[in-house]
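Let's sit down with a protein and look at its sequence and fold side by side. Once you have written the record down, we can walk along the chain together.
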Amino acid sequence: MKIYDSVKKEEVEIEGTKGLINIMKDGRQVDLYLKEKKTDEDGYLTWDVEHWSSVDGKRFIRCYSLEGRVLNESTGHNIYDLENDFKPEEAEKIELS
């Protein structure tokens, strides 16, 4: 898949979801701009961008934005959680930062 690297200011070719996870392990952040807003099951949090990064290669953090504003909330995930929670296929646009 082709995604935009906002640091290098160029499009790069990435090998699917596993390639994105490896990029996070190497210290980069992956931003998923969703096709539509999401809300958690409690109705507490609504977001339209997910900012994913790795803490240490095994643990990951997801931060949220809504309409251009970064929200205070974040969630922690282990490598096995990514199979259920990290869904780049739902993104309208993906960027590296």
